[in-house]
Design brief:
It is a single chain. This protein is 49% helix and 6% strand. With 452 residues, it is mostly helical. The protein folds into two domains: 300 residues, 2-methylcitrate dehydratase PrpD; 118 residues, 60s Ribosomal Protein L30, Chain: A (2-Layer Sandwich). A hairpin with a 6-residue loop joins strand 1 and strand 2. Helix 2 runs parallel beside helix 16, helix 8 packs antiparallel against helix 9 and helix 16 packs across helix 17. It starts with a helix and ends in a 9-residue tail after the last helix. The relative contact order is 0.15.
């Protein structure tokens, strides 16, 4: 069997009983995390526009939109929820939940899927996601090129296939249908990093979720596509990768022996694109150590990581997570970086704009083949003092209590505390939930706060 067929058969054959308990427990935490940040995003301008579009579509009300009383057909629900899941860039930094959870939940809600089925679909979809990224973008960690270096965004490309795997698992596709669903999903796969800092950035994971749902449903109905789409000439890998870039072994190495969700993906502390986290931590540490304020500072120097943080002059709140000058300016001003700071008002606040002029870019000197160096943050004060720090590791949330606390901070922007607690209890015992529609009832009712 080739890679496409091998992965399809793996998804079809694997049941929750085959998956280590550790992967199940970690997955419940990560699902809770992404539902929380999706609920928080449901109060942003992007949600208002998406919901307006859905109302105008007048589609059959079969699946819920998170944080809204709106209901629509499953692929559109997956599309909207997938976009909201990534809108704040506060989901785990692999972004594999932004398409797999919305795809599986949208189909699961209308098909009476159990929580156990949702967990199967999520864990297997994430496994496919990890494997595709490891294979097709193998050079990224070594700074040796690859699709990401040329502007492709994995959330919209490989995410479409991961979402198809999750959706296909919910529908109970056979191996041939699952391979076909991968081929169909590729027909809609896409996404570029230049859109980072705009609403279209988030739309790319929404598109992936919708692609996955549509692909699985069409495959079940007999729609056709190439069933060797990963490895075939002129297929997915050859379109994305230059000769020699793809690590084919990564696609199937230890398949079924090791599940990627056995390791907790990095759960973010800050609502920004991941490369900003070490500079944030460095600046906050220097600020605490030396007690300076924004008025004392002449300049702050940091790598801007412009592959992901290219918005040096943001004009709307959604650009904030991809703007290093804005991110470091609010850290310098407030001594923190939190969701409530990412507003249109703050983006245009004269104090923030003045602080942004103090942020300087120092280009990363990393050479091809070199490992990622630490981030070095240097603060020069008006009195001539210079303070520097290097930060090699990002601090993430690793404990259940911290992840739950983050969830409640996010979810209660849209839900009452009681409703958020109800949702958390359901996710905490997800393998015992009879029908995943119970989750959506918590997030799609008429009693939501300031619903859009």
């Amino acid at each position: 069997m080739g890679p496409t067929e091998t992965l399809a058969q793996f998804v079809v054959d694997t049941r929750l009983r085959d998956i280590p308990l550790k992967a199940v427990e970690i997955s419940k935490l990560v699902i809770l995390d992404v539902l929380g940040v999706t609920l928080a995003a449901s109060r942003q301008a992007i949600a208002r526009i998406l919901n307006e579009y859905l109302r105008e579509s007048a589609a059959a009300p079969k699946a819920g939109v998170i944080g809204s009383p709106l209901r629509t057909e499953p692929s559109l629900a997956a599309w909207a929820n997938g976009a909201l899941a990534f809108a704040l860039d506060f989901d785990d930094n692999i972004h594999g939940s932004t398409h797999t959870v919305p795809a599986a939940l949208a189909l699961g809600e209308g098909n009476g899927a159990s929580g156990a089925t949702l967990l199967e679909a999520y864990i297997l979809g994430r496994d496919i996601c990890f494997r595709l990224d490891a294979a097709l973008d193998a050079g990224r960690r070594k700074n040796q090129g690859g699709p990401t270096s040329r502007g492709w965004f994995a959330g919209g490309t490989t995410g479409s296939l991961a979402a198809a795997a999750a959706a296909g698992k919910v529908l109970g596709l056979n191996a041939k249908q699952m391979a076909t669903a991968c081929g169909i999903a590729v027909a809609g796969a896409g996404g570029v990093r230049r859109n980072f800092g705009t609403m279209a950035k988030a739309l790319q994971t929404g598109n992936a979720a919708r692609n996955g749902v549509s692909a699985a449903v069409l495959a079940q109905k007999g729609f056709t596509a190439d069933q060797t789409i990963l490895e075939a000439p002129m297929g997915f890998a050859s379109a994305l990768c230059l000769e020699g870039e793809c690590d084919w072994d990564a696609l199937t190495k230890d398949l079924g022996k090791f599940f990627y969700m056995e390791k907790l993906p990095p759960i973010k502390r800050f609502p920004t694109c991941t490369p900003a986290h070490r500079p944030i931590e460095g600046l906050l540490e220097l600020r605490q150590q030396h007690g300076f304020t924004v008025e004392d500072v002449e300049s702050v120097e940091s790598d801007f990581h412009q592959r992901s943080l290219a918005r040096t002059d943001p004009q709307e709140a959604i650009a904030g997570p991809n703007s290093m000058p804005f991110i470091l300016a609010i850290a310098l001003l407030d001594g923190k970086v939190t969701l409530e700071q990412f507003t249109d008002e703050n983006i245009h606040d004269p104090r923030v704009r003045a602080a942004m002029t103090k942020i300087r870019h120092r280009a990363n000197q990393r050479q091809p083949g070199q490992a990622e160096p630490p981030d070095r943050i240097t603060v020069t004060l008006k009195n001539g003092a210079v303070h520097s720090i290097e930060v090699a590791e990002r601090t993430t949330y690793t404990s259940s209590s911290d992840i739950h606390a983050k969830f409640f901070d996010c979810a209660t922007l849209a839900l009452s505390r009681g409703r958020a607690e109800q949702l958390a209890r359901l996710v905490d015992r997800l393998e015992n939930v009879v029908d995943v529609a119970a989750l959506m009832r918590c997030m799609n009712g008429n009693d939501l706060k300031n619903s859009t």
